[in-house]
Amino acid sequence: MRLTMNLKTPEHIVLFLNGNVVRVDPLTGQVLWVTRQPKGIHARFATIVIDGDMVLVGANGHIFALDIEDGRVLWLNELKGMGYGLVTVATAGPQAPGQATAAAAGAAAAGAAAAS
């Protein structure tokens, strides 16, 4: 028996190269936007997660979010006191209002405290 795969064209392709986050058109390969990593990061490698209309980028001990449509920086968290290196990023699907877990609430509070 021969296995076959029917791959569909992805909706978004985003990559990290030489300190730039780049979105390319999945049908043509044309560059749609380029955003330089925020000042002070100096990353050579990054983790990228697309979640809805946001591109989350973890790089060199920082995390920042970009708008999927135009690449503008929505926010930056320097994760102060946590060191530098490659950041692993994961997201979870939406939950019904009021059903956030205690861990998620704690993580949000820690992120807000680190940003201030």
What does this structure look like?
The chain has 116 residues and is mainly β. The chain has one helix and seven strands. The chain has one helix at residues 102-115, and strands at residues 13-17, 20-24, 31-36, 47-51, 54-59, 62-67, 73-77. The chain has a four-stranded antiparallel beta sheet with strand order 4-5-6-7. The chain has a three-stranded antiparallel beta sheet with strand order 1-2-3, with no helix packed on it. The chain starts with 12 loop residues before the first strand and ends with a helix.
List keywords for this structure.
single chain, 116 residues, mainly beta, Thrombin, subunit H, four-stranded antiparallel beta sheet, three-stranded antiparallel beta sheet, 1 helix, 33% strand
Q: What is the element layout, followed by pairings?
A:
Elements lengths: L12 E5 L2 E5 L6 E6 L10 E5 L2 E6 L2 E6 L5 E5 L24 H14 L1
CATH topology, by name, is Thrombin, subunit H
Which architecture name does CATH use? Answer: Beta Barrel
What's the mean pLDDT score?
84
Helix content percent band: 10-25%
- Written as H for each helix and E for each strand, in order along the chain, the element string is EEEEEEEH
- Uncertain ranges: none
Which class do the helix and strand fractions yield?
mainly beta
CATH class: Mainly Beta
**Proportion in β-strands:** 25-35%
Number of strands: 7
Which geometry do the CA atoms define?
globular
Strand order of the largest sheet: 4-5-6-7
Rg from alpha-carbon coordinates: 16 Å
In total, the number of domains comes to 1
Largest sheet: 4 strands, antiparallel
Distance between the termini: 59 Å
| Tally of helical runs | 1
